[in-house]
Amino acid sequence: MSRSAQVVRQTKETQIRVSIDLDGTGESKISTGIGFFDHMLESFARHGGFDLEVETKGDLHIDMHHTVEDTGIVIGAAVNQALDGFKGIRRFGHAYIPMDETLTRCALDLSNRPYLIWKVVYSRPKVGEMDTELFKEFHHAFAMNCGACVHLETLYGDNSHHIAESGFKALARALRAAVEIDPKTHGHAPSTKGVL
């Protein structure tokens, strides 16, 4: 059974193509036009164990907002599509990611009831050329379109690069655990309702 998907989204602001294989080896090919964002998505794929291709062309002459948010929308939608109704998975995942002085925690429920709790504070307004406020926009767009309840919290940390990167790695590791096949579900959705 292939748990993969390809999603294409085209608007006046962005043109995006994403393909993902949840059972990959962490290989990625990322091109968003934003160097630091590419680095974060490569880290997300590597630590999630997902094969991920992202090609985003956005209105970067205006700013990075549409590019980052819309990429989150499409990656979330691709994960949702690849999960095919969330049947047979563990559903829940969590991770603690230390990175030098920073520690970030992510707890995640693939519930089809999307939500984001964001308790992350940045010491600087930018990492490289990227506005740090856009990291919340990405995670919110991902959660809403994946159907995931995501709680992401940086417990402590000072370096904005470390805070951002530990967040992407924590999301990746929590998602990796949640999408694992659970033989005890016998291929059904892990819910007393019988469907998610």
Task: Give a brief rundown of this model.
With 196 residues, the protein is of the alpha+beta class. The chain contains four helices and ten strands, in the order E-E-E-H-E-H-E-E-E-E-E-H-E-H.
Describe the protein.
The protein is of the alpha+beta class and 196 residues long. The protein has one domain: Imidazole glycerol phosphate dehydratase, domain 1 (Ribosomal Protein S5, domain 2, 2-Layer Sandwich), CATH 3.30.230. The protein is built from 4 helices and 10 strands. A 4-stranded mixed β-sheet has the order 1-2-4-3, with helices on one face. Strands 5-6-10-7 form a 4-stranded mixed β-sheet, covered by helices on one side. It has a two-stranded antiparallel ribbon with strand order 8-9. The model has no long low-confidence stretch (mean pLDDT 96).
